[in-house]
Amino acid sequence: MRHRRLLSCIAAGAVAAGSTVALAPVASAAGHAPTSLAEVLLADGDDFDSDWNDFDIVTQAVVAVATGVEGTPVTVLLDGDVALTAFIPTDRAFRALVQDLSGQKLDSEADVFAAVAALGLPAVEQVLLDHVVLGATVTSAVAVTADGAELGTAGGDTLVVDVRRPNARQTFLLDGAGARDAHLSPSHLDINLGNPQVAHGISEVLLFP
């Protein structure tokens, strides 16, 4: 609840300038205010637990940057009117990142988040922005037909959609870093569908060279 109150006090107007893709946004249901991704993530819980397949670490990272970096573009995730697509790594993806960086496989989500936070807020902010594509709502149905599409991120980098088979498990996002390729998680597709902001869970943290 503390994080929900903090986020409700942040002005949801700091939208980063970035590339858009030529895809139509999905409108929210008539008569209802659109729901932001931050609201959805927080409603699912932001406490660390033993479920490595949810998004507690990325949720905590959004809170840390939104409340700790003045004017951060990450607050776009709080503005449900702004069309965007986020590819959000699972907690397990962050644990794999920390293991790659440190050689240690940490046993708790809290320890993984602490290791990520130790990189510094500017680095965490950049990582978050590189998982957001502004200006379009890319559903999973669109993603599996977009082989070779280049998507500009809010962090200024470009990711490439690589559809190896026409299903979500074989839809990858290439960051050019040469590490393991992230794929869309079939069990976490179209989060917040029906609103301008949609998200898909992915198996790895995107890291650009």
Automatic annotation (TrEMBL):
What superkingdom heads the lineage?
A: Bacteria
Going by the UniProt record, its keywords in alphabetical order are: Signal
Q: Mind telling me which Pfam families this protein's record contains?
A: Fasciclin
The residue ranges crossing the membrane are: none
Residues annotated as signal peptide: 1-24
| Ranges of residues in domain FAS1 | 42-206
InterPro entries tied to this protein? FAS1_dom_sf (IPR036378), FAS1_domain (IPR000782)
Note the SMART domains from the entry: FAS1
SUPFAM superfamilies per the record?
FAS1 domain
Name under which the protein is recorded: FAS1 domain-containing protein
Source organism (scientific name): Actinotalea ferrariae CF5-4
